[in-house]
Fold these 2 entries.
Entry 1:
Amino acid sequence: MSAGMPVRRHWLPIGLEAERRLDTPRWLPLATLGVGLLVALLISGALLAIIGADPLLVLRHILIASFGSLGVLSDTLVKATPLMFTGLACAVAFRMRLWNIGAEGQLFLGAWGASAVVLVPMLPAGVSPFIVVPVMLVCGILAGALWGGIAGWLKARFGVNEIITTLMLNYIAIQWVRFWVFGPWSEGGFQLSRQFPREAWLPRLTDFASVVRDFAGLTVHLGLVIAIVCAVLVWFWLSRTRTGYEIRLIGDNPRAAHYAGIDIGRTVILVMLVSGGLAGLAGMTEVSGSVHRLQDGFSPGYGFTGVIIAYLARFNPFGVIVASIAFGGLILAGREIQPAGIPSMIQGIVLFCVISSDVLLRYRLRVVRR
Amino acid sequence: MTPVVASEGEPSTPGPGTSDPALATLAVAMTGIVKRFPGLVANDQVDFDLRPGEVHALLGENGAGKSTLMNILAGIYRPDAGEIRVHGQPFEATSPRDAIAAGIGMIHQHFTLVPSLTVTENVLLGLDEPRFRLRLQEYGERIAALGERAGLRVDPEARVWQLSVGEQQRVEILKMLYRGARILVMDEPTAVLAPQETQELFRTLRTMTASGGSIVFISHKLDEVLAIADRITVLRKGRVTAAGIPAAGRTRPELARLMVGRDVLETIDKPPVTPGAVVLEMRDVRARNDRELPALHGVSLEVRGGEILGIAGVAGNGQTELAEVITGLRHCTGSIRVNGTEVAGRPPRASIAQGVAHVPEDRHGTGSAPNLSLTDNLVMKSYRSEPIARGWLLDRLAARRQARDLTTAYEVSAPSVDTEARLLSGGNLQRLIFAREIATGPSLMVAVQPSRGLDVGAVATVHRLLLERRTAGAAVLLISEDLDEILAISDRVAVIYEGRIRGITDSAAADIETLGLLMTGDAIDGSDAGAADA
Ligand SMILES: Nc1ncnc2c1ncn2[C@@H]1O[C@H](COP(=O)(O)OP(=O)(O)OP(=O)(O)O)[C@@H](O)[C@H]1O
Ligand SMILES: [Mg+2]
C-alpha cells in the first residue's frame, strides 16, 4: 500500500529494546528491588568516589552509625517507628488507588489530639499511665482519622480529588498545631508546649534499666510494638476480611466493584478513616514516645516519606516495616556523616533507582544488534 | 531468485526476493512453534502457513491457543521454539513494531483506538511522520483515499467515540493498511459486528485478497468461516488437528468435530414451561448513555418466571443501558420492579438482593477484575454469604473450593484458581463470568451477549443452562444481536431500536425477515406511536 512505514534510523550498532511483559513471575518484584538497590549502591559509590571519599568506607560508616551497636540500632528504630505508621497509612490507601498524600497532616493532627489529653488537660493530674496512655492513643487515632475522613467524605460525596484535599489539609494541620504551640500551649513563649508528665510517656526500654542493665539508654519505645501489631492487623484486614476483599476489588477495577454491589463511597470513607488513624498514631507515638511534648515542626516530613515507604514496600504491610527500618537508618546516619547532605543524597538515589526498577516489572529488556 | 544480501543498518524491505523458492510462495510459514505458559503448553509444535491472496481461518475451542499463535506472529509473544518465515525471510519480531515493519498487522478483539481523537489522528498515532506540523487535512485526504481503494469508507475527521463498532473496526484496519500491512490477522473480528457489518467486512477482506494481501481469520462462527475462508487450520489443546485443509465442501458438524474431537449436538430441546408470576416489570423507563444522550425512551416490558424474553437489535440501540438500569449500574427514571420490589434508581446491591444476575456486555471493563485471581473473580457475587463469609471474615479455603468447583463444572480452563483473570483466553473469561452469575441461582438473569466469543460446544452449554434456569422458574432477559440464538431459546422476542421496544411477539410466530426489518428501523413507519417524537 502507498504509505510505507517510516524507516527508523539507528546510531549505534547495538541497542536496548523493551518488550512488554505479559506474565510476572512471583520472584520478579523482589529481584527488581534487588537490582534497583544494587544500581543505587553503584551510583552512590561513584558519586562518593568523585567527591573524593572512599565509597566502601562511607557505606561501612553508615551501617555502623545506624546499625552498629545496640544504642544506635535503638535510635534507628525510634526514627523508623513513625515511618512505619505513615507507610502503613499510605499503603492501605494506595491499595485502593486512593492517593492519600496527607499522612503528614494526619500525623500532626494525631499528635495534637494526643497532646490535648495532657495539655487541656482532659484528665486530672496524677492518673495512672494505664489510663492516660490509652486515652491518648484513642484521641490520636480519632484526630488523624477525622483529618483523613474529611478528604474521604469529600471524595465520596462530591468526587473531589483526594490528592488536592489531602495535600491542602496538610498545611491546615501544620498551621493548626503551630497556633496551639505558639499560643495557648506555649511554654514561656517558645514554640513548644511544656513537657508531658511521666504518666503520659510511652514506656521505653531504658525505663526498665533497673531490671535489665543493658537497656540503659535505649530509647526505643512501645510505639514500635504498636506499629508491628498494626502491620499484622493491616495485612489481616486486607487479605482475610470481606472489607479487605472489597478494597482489593475496588483497587483493581472500580467498575467491577460497583457491579458486584460494593458501596464504593462508603469504602472510600472507611479507608481514609483507617489511613488517617494510622497516620494519627504516628503523631501520637512520636510525641508520647520520643519528643514528650508538642512542638512546632517535630516531624521532618515523616508523612511524605511514608508515601515513598509504601511505594518501596509495594503496598505490602510487612515490606513497610523493613523499608522503614532502612530509612530510619539513613536518617540517623545523616547526623553522623559529614557533609550532612550525603545520606539524603543516597536516600534520593535509592528511591530513584528502586522506583525506576519498576519498569523491569513491566518490560523485559534485551540487547539487540542492528 | 537472487539471494538478497542483508544490508548493514537499514532493515531490508520485505519482498518476494528470497533464497528458497518453495517458501517464497508463502506469505507466512510458521513451523514447530512452541509456546509455554506457567502450567500449560499453549502451542505445541504448531505448523501454520499463509498463502498470498488467501483467507486462512484458524479454528479451535476456547483456550486452544489461537490468539497465542497469532500474538507470536504479531510480535507480542516470543515463541519458545520454532521458526517463522515471512515471504521466505526469517522473521524474528520482538515487538509489534517489528511485525508491522514486515507487513504484518494484527487487529485484536479489543480496539486500541483513542475515543477522543479523530480517525486521522488515530491512524497517525505512534508514527514518526508527520513530525512537527501535523497537517491533518493533507493526511486526512491520504487516509480517505487509502480507505476508498480498500473499500473502507470512514470520515477521517470524525471522532472515534462517534463511530459504530463496525466503523471503529474499519479504522483499525485502515491503521494497519496505512502502516503498510499486507498480512492482516483478525482475532474474532465478527464477534462484535451486526450481520450487515459482517458482510461489509467480508467485502473489504475480499478486496484485500484480490490485490494479493493475506488474511488470518479467527472466529467461532462456523457459517462465517465457511463463507469467507479459503483454507482452515484447526487447533485442539495447542496442537494442530487439521492443517490448512481447503474450506470448500466442508460442513459445520465436520468442523465442530475437528475442534472438539467428538460430535457436537447443536440442537437443544426446549421443554414447555408454563410462565409463572411476573418477575421483572418495567414501566416507562428512561435513561441516558455515557455521552449524556437519551438512550432509553420510555421502555416498558414484563418478563415472567419460567420465561425467556429475547431482545434483538443492532448494537448501540440501548441494549447496554437496558441491562444496566435493571442491575442498578445506571440511573434512570420510571419504574423497575423485580419480584414486586422497586429497584429503579437503587444501587446494584438492591438488584442483587432481589436475585438479579448479570452477564455484562463488557467482560473486561465491568465483568471482571483483571489483576485479581480467578478465585477473587468467582466469588464477586457470593462473598457476602456463607460459606465464604464468616461474619466479617472471608474464608479463603471455602472461596478456593467454590472456585475450583465452578471452574470444573463450567469448564473454565486455567492453570489454577490463583491465575490472574487477565491471563484467561477470551472465551474462558466469558465462561467464568457466566459461571459466576448462573451459580447464584438467580430469579432474574440479565444476559447480554452471553455466548460472545464462546466455541460451539460452550454456546450449546450456555443455552442449555439458560433453559435450565427457565425450567427452574427464573425469568431470563436475553439481549443478543444474534437472531438465531434469540429464536432458538426465547419464548417471546422483542426488538429494541433507538431506545424503544417494538413488536413483542411469540418467538414461534416470529420470522427473521420482519425482525430484521424492525432491527434496522425500516418497516414500522406509522405503526409505532412512540416513533413520532424525536
Ligand atoms: N500470558 C499468559 N500467561 C499464562 N497463560 C496464558 C497467557 N496467555 C494465554 N494463556 C493461556 O493459554 C491458553 C491459550 O490461550 P489463547 O488465548 O491462545 O486461547 P484461544 O484459542 O484464543 O481461546 P479463545 O477462543 O477463548 O479466545 C489459555 O489456557 C490461556 O489461559
Ligand atoms: Mg482468543
Entry 2:
Amino acid sequence: MSHYPYPDETGRYGAFGGRYVPETLMSALLQLEQDYLRLSRDEAFQAELKYYLEQYAGRPTPLYYAERLTKHLGGPKIYLKREDLNHTGAHKINNAIGQALLALRTGKRRVIAETGAGQHGVATATVAARFGLECTVFMGEEDMRRQALNVFRMRMLGAEVVAATSGTRTLKDATNEAIRHWVAHVDDTHYIIGSVVGPHPYPMIVRDFQRVIGDEAKAQILAQEGRLPTSVVACVGGGSNAMGIFYPFIEDEEVELVGCEAAGHGLHTPYHAATIARGRPGVLHGAKTMLLQDEYGQVQPAHSISAGLDYPGIGPEHAHLAETGRARYVPVTDEEALEAFFLLSKLEGIIPALESAHAIAYVMREARRYRADDIIVVCLSGRGDKDVEQVAAREGETAHGSHS
Amino acid sequence: MDRIREAFAAGHKLLIPFVVAGDPDYARSLEIARAILDAGADMLEIGFPYSDPLADGPVIQAAAVRSLKQGTRLVDCLRLVQDIRARSSKPLVAFTYVNPLIQYGPERFFAELAAAGGDGVIVPDVPLEEAAEVAAAAEAHGIRFVPLVAPTSGEERIRAIVREARGFVYCVSSLGVTGERQDVSRQARALVDLVRRHTDLPACVGFGVSRPEHVREIAAFADGVIVGSAYVRRIGEAVDAGRDPVAAVRSFTEQLKQAALEAIRPR
Ligand SMILES: Cc1ncc(COP(=O)(O)O)c(C=O)c1O
C-alpha cells in the first residue's frame, strides 16, 4: 500500500469527514487545525505529552498474553492491549491529556466535553483538575442514570456535569449540547471531543493522541512474537480506541483490522448501534459519515447495553476504512458482550468494560475461523468497574424472573 | 422573477419571521404562516424540522420535536411552501439542516422547492468550505443560497463568503445558538458594517432578536430583521394554554412591523 494520505487538506477521508458546522465555529476550527499542526511538530510539546502519558497515565500499558482465554477457545493466540490499566481506567485519558495540553498551549482556561459511559467525562475532569482548567461535562440524562458512579466521580474531581435532556438523552444528545455550548463560548473554551468524531480537525487530533495504543502494541507484539498479528480487534463507538490501535497497522496490509459494532438486541430489531452494517452516509456532529437514519434523514436512536457504544454515528475515518475494505466491521449483540464480560472475568481475572467486552465477544465467536498459530491483538479499552452495578442489576432481574 | 430582490427594492426594512413547518401541526402551521404574512411580514423563513438541530436553542428544538411527533416529513414541508405560495407573493426561504437535504438529494430538493414556489435556502451547518455542491444545485433551480456570517468570521472569511452569497447575507447577531436574548449585541452592527464593505447584497440580522425594540434598533442599520424563537415560543405557549396560536402571531407581527417601519434609514 502506498503512503496513507488521510485526512486530506479539506479534512476528508475519501468521501467522509469535512466540517459541517455553524459558521460561528469555523474560525476556531481553522485556528485549532493550525495550532495543532504546529504543536504536533513541536518537540517540547511532544516531550511534555510523553511525560504525562508515562508519569501520570501510567504508560506504556502491557500487551498481555491471555493464556487461559487462548486455551479455552482452542484457537489463535490472544493478546490483550491493557488500556484498562491506564489512570481513570480506559484509553480516554490518552486523548484527554493531549487535548488538555493543547488547550493550555492555546491559552484556553475552560474545557468542555461530552460523555456517554462517563469514561471520557472522567478523563477530562481528571486532566482539568490536574492542569487547573475549569471543566463542564455534558452527559445524557439516561446515561447519568446508567453510569451514576462516574457522575459522582466527575463532580468529586471538580467538574460541573450538565444533563442533556433533549432527544434520546444519550451520547448523541450530549454531543449536540456540547457543540451548542461551544458555539456560545468559542472565544474562551476548548472543546475536548472524546472520540474520532466531529468536524475536522478533531477526528485527526483524537486519532493522533490515541495512536500511542497501536504504536506500543506493534512494538510489543514484534518483541514478544517476532511478527505482526493476524488480526487487530477493537470495539467501535465513535471509534477512538479502534482508530488508535488500527492506525499504525493500516499500511501493513497483511494485518486484518476488525471493528466491533454494538448490535444491541440484534440487527433484525431496531435496537442496535451498528452504524456500518445498517447506516447510510449522512452528516452528524459536523462530519459526513455513516449514520443510522430514516429515509428523510432524521437521525435514529441507537441502542447498546454499553453507554459508550450507544451512538448512531461513527468516526469518518472508520466509514472510509469500511468503504475501502481496509477494515472490517462486525456486529456483536448485548448478550454476546455480557457473555464475554463474565468469561474474561472468570478466566483471566480481568473485568472488562462492557464496551471492550464487545471485542472479546468477537474473538469468542470467531476463534474457530483462525489457525492455532494466528495471533489476535484485542484492544481492552477499559475496565469494567463502572459496569458492575448495571450488570448485577440485570442479572438480579433475570434471576428473579421479572423479565417474564 | 426575483421575489427576494423585489422585496428589498421596495425600500423599507424587512421583517422576516421564522416558524417551524408542522408546528404544532400541518394545518395550523399553514394558518400561522398565512397570518404572519397577512399581518405585514415581508418574507418568511420556514424551518424544516430536524432531529438534531445543532444551531438551535431549546425553543426551536422543542418545536422541531412537536412537529416531528406529528409525523412531519420533508415532503410535507415542501407542500407547506406550496400551500403558502398559493396565497402570497412574498419571498419564502427554507431553513434546513444539511442531512435531510442530502438524503433527499440536492437536485431533487431544489427542483421541488422551486416548483413549490420557494425562493431561497439557508443551511446553518454548511459553511463556505462545504457549500459548493449544495449552492450549485440551488443556483441551478433559481433558489438563492443565503449564507451566514458570524461575529467570529473575521474580514477575510466574510469577503469570501459574501462573494458566493445570493439573495441576502444572514448576519448572526452574537455568539450562540438561536434563542431570545435580553439585548441586541454590539457585535451585530459591526458585523453588518463589515459585510457592507464587501457586498451590495442586503444584510439581515438574526439570532436573539425577540422584541419590538430590538427590531427598531437593528432596522436602523440592517436591511432586514429575522425573528425566530420569539415567534416559536409564542406558538408553543398558546398551544399549551389552549389558546389560538394564530391570534398570538398576528398581533406580534403587527407590533414588530410597526417597529421596523419606525426605524430610520441610514442608507
Ligand atoms: C472503555 C471504553 N471503550 C470504548 C468506548 C467507545 O469509544 P471509542 O469508540 O471512541 O473508543 C468507550 C466510551 O465511552 C469506553 O469508555
